[in-house]
Inverse folding.
Protein backbone atom coordinates (compact mmCIF):
# COMPACT_ATOMS: atom_id res chain seq x y z
CA UNK A 1 0.00 0.00 0.00
CA UNK A 2 1.26 3.50 -0.76
CA UNK A 3 1.47 5.89 2.17
CA UNK A 4 -1.62 8.16 2.34
CA UNK A 5 -0.93 11.72 1.28
CA UNK A 6 -1.16 13.35 4.71
CA UNK A 7 0.84 16.47 5.44
CA UNK A 8 2.44 16.19 8.91
CA UNK A 9 1.83 19.94 9.30
CA UNK A 10 -1.82 20.43 10.24
CA UNK A 11 -1.91 24.24 10.21
CA UNK A 12 0.56 26.69 8.70
CA UNK A 13 0.23 30.46 9.03
CA UNK A 14 3.25 32.18 7.58
CA UNK A 15 6.35 30.95 9.41
CA UNK A 16 4.22 29.34 12.13
CA UNK A 17 3.55 25.63 11.60
CA UNK A 18 1.53 23.40 13.91
CA UNK A 19 2.11 19.69 13.41
CA UNK A 20 -0.37 16.88 13.93
CA UNK A 21 2.04 15.47 16.54
CA UNK A 22 1.67 18.59 18.71
CA UNK A 23 -2.10 18.52 18.29
CA UNK A 24 -2.15 14.88 19.35
CA UNK A 25 -0.51 15.84 22.65
CA UNK A 26 -2.85 18.78 23.14
CA UNK A 27 -6.10 16.97 22.33
CA UNK A 28 -4.93 13.87 24.18
CA UNK A 29 -4.68 15.93 27.37
CA UNK A 30 -7.90 17.88 26.76
CA UNK A 31 -10.02 14.85 25.85
CA UNK A 32 -8.45 12.85 28.66
CA UNK A 33 -9.25 15.63 31.12
CA UNK A 34 -12.84 15.83 29.88
CA UNK A 35 -13.30 12.08 30.29
CA UNK A 36 -11.55 12.23 33.64
CA UNK A 37 -14.00 14.91 34.76
CA UNK A 38 -16.91 12.57 34.01
CA UNK A 39 -15.28 9.75 35.96
CA UNK A 40 -14.48 11.96 38.96
CA UNK A 41 -17.98 13.44 39.00
CA UNK A 42 -19.54 9.96 39.16
CA UNK A 43 -18.79 9.27 42.81
CA UNK A 44 -20.57 5.91 42.87
CA UNK A 45 -17.75 4.49 40.76
CA UNK A 46 -15.12 5.11 43.43
CA UNK A 47 -13.98 3.45 46.63
CA UNK A 48 -16.22 4.70 49.46
CA UNK A 49 -17.71 7.15 46.96
CA UNK A 50 -14.59 9.31 47.14
CA UNK A 51 -12.55 10.00 43.99
CA UNK A 52 -8.87 10.97 44.41
CA UNK A 53 -9.73 14.66 44.02
CA UNK A 54 -12.78 16.78 43.11
CA UNK A 55 -13.88 16.76 39.48
CA UNK A 56 -13.35 20.51 39.15
CA UNK A 57 -9.65 20.05 39.92
CA UNK A 58 -9.06 18.02 36.77
CA UNK A 59 -8.33 21.19 34.81
CA UNK A 60 -5.58 22.14 37.25
CA UNK A 61 -4.18 18.65 36.90
CA UNK A 62 -4.29 18.94 33.10
CA UNK A 63 -1.51 21.53 33.37
CA UNK A 64 0.50 19.14 35.54
CA UNK A 65 -0.14 16.47 32.93
CA UNK A 66 1.37 18.48 30.08
CA UNK A 67 4.52 19.19 32.05
CA UNK A 68 4.83 15.61 33.31
CA UNK A 69 4.45 14.05 29.85
CA UNK A 70 6.88 16.40 28.13
CA UNK A 71 9.53 16.40 30.85
CA UNK A 72 9.20 12.72 31.68
CA UNK A 73 9.09 11.69 28.04
CA UNK A 74 12.21 13.67 27.19
CA UNK A 75 14.19 12.58 30.23
CA UNK A 76 13.19 8.98 29.57
CA UNK A 77 14.38 9.17 25.97
CA UNK A 78 17.70 10.69 27.01
CA UNK A 79 18.32 8.06 29.70
CA UNK A 80 16.92 4.95 28.03
CA UNK A 81 17.51 5.42 24.32
CA UNK A 82 20.47 7.70 23.58
CA UNK A 83 22.41 8.52 26.75
CA UNK A 84 25.96 8.41 25.22
CA UNK A 85 25.00 10.98 22.59
CA UNK A 86 23.49 13.38 25.11
CA UNK A 87 26.43 13.02 27.47
CA UNK A 88 28.60 14.25 24.62
CA UNK A 89 26.07 16.89 23.55
CA UNK A 90 24.28 18.10 26.71
CA UNK A 91 22.96 21.17 24.93
CA UNK A 92 20.76 18.90 22.78
CA UNK A 93 18.87 17.51 25.76
CA UNK A 94 16.30 20.31 25.61
CA UNK A 95 16.03 20.15 21.82
CA UNK A 96 12.81 18.22 21.24
CA UNK A 97 12.65 19.08 17.53
CA UNK A 98 14.24 15.72 16.77
CA UNK A 99 11.14 13.99 18.15
CA UNK A 100 13.00 12.11 20.86
CA UNK A 101 10.32 11.20 23.40
CA UNK A 102 9.93 8.02 25.45
CA UNK A 103 6.48 6.74 26.30
CA UNK A 104 7.83 4.91 29.34
CA UNK A 105 9.45 8.12 30.60
CA UNK A 106 6.23 10.05 30.05
CA UNK A 107 4.34 7.36 31.95
CA UNK A 108 6.68 7.63 34.94
CA UNK A 109 6.37 11.41 34.92
CA UNK A 110 2.59 11.20 34.78
CA UNK A 111 2.47 8.65 37.61
CA UNK A 112 4.58 10.88 39.83
CA UNK A 113 2.43 13.89 39.01
CA UNK A 114 -0.88 12.21 39.85
CA UNK A 115 0.49 10.70 43.08
CA UNK A 116 1.67 14.11 44.31
CA UNK A 117 -1.50 15.87 43.12
CA UNK A 118 -3.81 13.32 44.77
CA UNK A 119 -1.96 13.46 48.10
CA UNK A 120 -2.01 17.26 48.08
CA UNK A 121 -5.79 17.13 47.56
CA UNK A 122 -6.20 14.62 50.40
CA UNK A 123 -7.10 11.70 48.15
CA UNK A 124 -5.99 8.11 47.71
CA UNK A 125 -2.98 8.12 45.39
CA UNK A 126 -3.80 4.60 44.17
CA UNK A 127 -7.16 5.91 42.98
CA UNK A 128 -5.22 8.71 41.30
CA UNK A 129 -3.25 6.10 39.37
CA UNK A 130 -6.54 4.42 38.45
CA UNK A 131 -7.81 7.70 37.04
CA UNK A 132 -4.73 8.14 34.86
CA UNK A 133 -5.01 4.54 33.68
CA UNK A 134 -8.62 5.07 32.65
CA UNK A 135 -7.88 8.13 30.51
CA UNK A 136 -4.33 7.55 29.24
CA UNK A 137 -5.46 5.31 26.40
CA UNK A 138 -7.02 8.34 24.69
CA UNK A 139 -3.67 10.09 24.44
CA UNK A 140 -1.91 6.88 23.41
CA UNK A 141 -4.35 6.37 20.54
CA UNK A 142 -3.92 9.91 19.23
CA UNK A 143 -0.15 9.82 19.69
CA UNK A 144 0.26 6.62 17.68
CA UNK A 145 -1.91 8.00 14.89
CA UNK A 146 0.37 11.06 14.84
CA UNK A 147 3.40 8.74 14.63
CA UNK A 148 1.83 7.18 11.54
CA UNK A 149 1.18 10.58 9.96
CA UNK A 150 4.82 11.50 10.64
CA UNK A 151 5.89 8.24 8.95
CA UNK A 152 8.05 7.39 11.98
CA UNK A 153 8.46 4.36 14.25
CA UNK A 154 7.35 2.03 11.47
CA UNK A 155 7.73 -1.72 11.47
CA UNK A 156 9.86 -4.38 9.85
CA UNK A 157 9.54 -5.33 6.16
CA UNK A 158 6.50 -7.48 5.46
CA UNK A 159 4.53 -9.17 2.69
CA UNK A 160 1.12 -8.77 4.34
CA UNK A 161 -1.40 -6.99 2.06
CA UNK A 162 -1.75 -4.04 4.45
CA UNK A 163 1.98 -3.31 4.49
CA UNK A 164 2.78 0.36 3.91
CA UNK A 165 5.62 1.98 1.98
CA UNK A 166 6.61 4.94 4.14
CA UNK A 167 8.09 8.01 2.42
CA UNK A 168 10.80 8.28 5.10
CA UNK A 169 12.00 4.71 4.53
CA UNK A 170 15.31 4.74 2.62
CA UNK A 171 14.66 1.21 1.33
CA UNK A 172 11.12 1.98 0.13
CA UNK A 173 9.74 -1.45 0.95
CA UNK A 174 6.40 -2.45 2.42
CA UNK A 175 6.50 -2.43 6.22
CA UNK A 176 4.21 -3.24 9.12
CA UNK A 177 2.26 -0.12 10.12
CA UNK A 178 3.23 -0.81 13.73
CA UNK A 179 1.99 2.63 14.83
CA UNK A 180 -1.55 1.57 13.89
CA UNK A 181 -1.14 -1.75 15.67
CA UNK A 182 -0.24 0.12 18.84
CA UNK A 183 -3.09 2.61 18.37
CA UNK A 184 -5.53 -0.31 18.10
CA UNK A 185 -4.14 -2.38 20.99
CA UNK A 186 -2.75 0.14 23.51
CA UNK A 187 -5.34 2.77 22.64
CA UNK A 188 -8.73 1.56 21.45
CA UNK A 189 -8.85 -2.02 22.75
CA UNK A 190 -7.39 -1.18 26.14
CA UNK A 191 -9.80 1.75 26.51
CA UNK A 192 -12.76 -0.59 25.91
CA UNK A 193 -11.44 -3.19 28.36
CA UNK A 194 -10.97 -0.58 31.08
CA UNK A 195 -14.36 0.97 30.33
CA UNK A 196 -16.01 -2.40 30.94
CA UNK A 197 -13.98 -2.82 34.13
CA UNK A 198 -14.92 0.62 35.51
CA UNK A 199 -18.59 0.78 34.55
CA UNK A 200 -19.74 -2.84 34.65
CA UNK A 201 -17.50 -4.43 37.27
CA UNK A 202 -16.90 -1.18 39.26
CA UNK A 203 -13.15 -1.76 39.34
CA UNK A 204 -12.50 1.78 40.61
CA UNK A 205 -13.93 0.69 43.95
CA UNK A 206 -10.75 -1.34 44.48
CA UNK A 207 -7.92 1.23 44.39
CA UNK A 208 -5.05 0.09 42.19
CA UNK A 209 -7.05 -2.45 40.17
CA UNK A 210 -7.60 -0.29 37.08
CA UNK A 211 -3.99 0.88 37.13
CA UNK A 212 -2.93 -2.76 37.24
CA UNK A 213 -5.21 -3.70 34.34
CA UNK A 214 -3.80 -0.84 32.29
CA UNK A 215 -0.20 -1.77 33.09
CA UNK A 216 -0.72 -5.40 32.11
CA UNK A 217 -2.63 -4.51 28.94
CA UNK A 218 -0.13 -1.89 27.83
CA UNK A 219 2.93 -4.01 28.57
CA UNK A 220 1.62 -7.08 26.75
CA UNK A 221 0.53 -4.98 23.74
CA UNK A 222 3.87 -3.18 23.53
CA UNK A 223 5.92 -6.36 23.90
CA UNK A 224 3.86 -8.03 21.16
CA UNK A 225 4.10 -5.14 18.68
CA UNK A 226 7.84 -4.75 19.27
CA UNK A 227 8.33 -8.08 17.47
CA UNK A 228 7.31 -6.38 14.20
CA UNK A 229 8.50 -2.83 14.97
CA UNK A 230 11.99 -1.67 14.08
CA UNK A 231 14.13 -0.77 17.10
CA UNK A 232 15.68 2.68 17.43
CA UNK A 233 18.60 2.82 15.02
CA UNK A 234 21.11 3.97 17.66
CA UNK A 235 20.27 0.96 19.86
CA UNK A 236 19.30 -1.83 17.52
CA UNK A 237 18.34 -5.15 19.06
CA UNK A 238 19.62 -5.79 22.57
CA UNK A 239 19.78 -9.55 22.04
CA UNK A 240 19.62 -11.59 18.85
CA UNK A 241 17.17 -10.14 16.35
CA UNK A 242 14.13 -9.79 18.58
CA UNK A 243 14.77 -8.21 22.02
CA UNK A 244 14.29 -4.42 22.05
CA UNK A 245 14.56 -1.68 24.64
CA UNK A 246 10.79 -1.20 24.44
CA UNK A 247 10.27 -4.81 25.52
CA UNK A 248 12.81 -4.55 28.35
CA UNK A 249 11.17 -1.38 29.71
CA UNK A 250 7.73 -2.99 29.47
CA UNK A 251 8.66 -5.97 31.67
CA UNK A 252 8.71 -4.03 34.99
CA UNK A 253 5.41 -2.40 33.96
CA UNK A 254 3.93 -5.87 33.46
CA UNK A 255 5.25 -7.04 36.83
CA UNK A 256 3.96 -3.90 38.55
CA UNK A 257 0.56 -4.39 36.97
CA UNK A 258 0.34 -7.98 38.22
CA UNK A 259 1.28 -6.84 41.74
CA UNK A 260 -1.36 -4.09 41.70
CA UNK A 261 -4.12 -6.40 40.46
CA UNK A 262 -3.26 -9.02 43.08
CA UNK A 263 -3.09 -6.41 45.84
CA UNK A 264 -6.34 -4.68 44.88
CA UNK A 265 -8.27 -7.89 44.35
CA UNK A 266 -7.29 -9.43 47.70
CA UNK A 267 -7.78 -6.42 50.01
CA UNK A 268 -11.17 -5.73 51.51
CA UNK A 269 -10.12 -2.30 52.76
CA UNK A 270 -7.20 -0.37 51.35
CA UNK A 271 -4.74 0.65 54.11
CA UNK A 272 -3.38 3.42 51.88
CA UNK A 273 -6.55 5.43 52.44
CA UNK A 274 -5.48 8.76 54.00
Amino acid sequence: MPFPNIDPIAIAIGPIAIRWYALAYLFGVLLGAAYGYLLLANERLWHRGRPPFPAKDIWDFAFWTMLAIVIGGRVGYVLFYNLPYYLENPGQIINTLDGGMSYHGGMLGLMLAVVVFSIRRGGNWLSGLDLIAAVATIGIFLGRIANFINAELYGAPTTVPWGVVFPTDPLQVARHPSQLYEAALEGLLLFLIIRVATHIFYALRKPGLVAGIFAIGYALSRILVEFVRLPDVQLGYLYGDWLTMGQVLSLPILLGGLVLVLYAATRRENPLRP
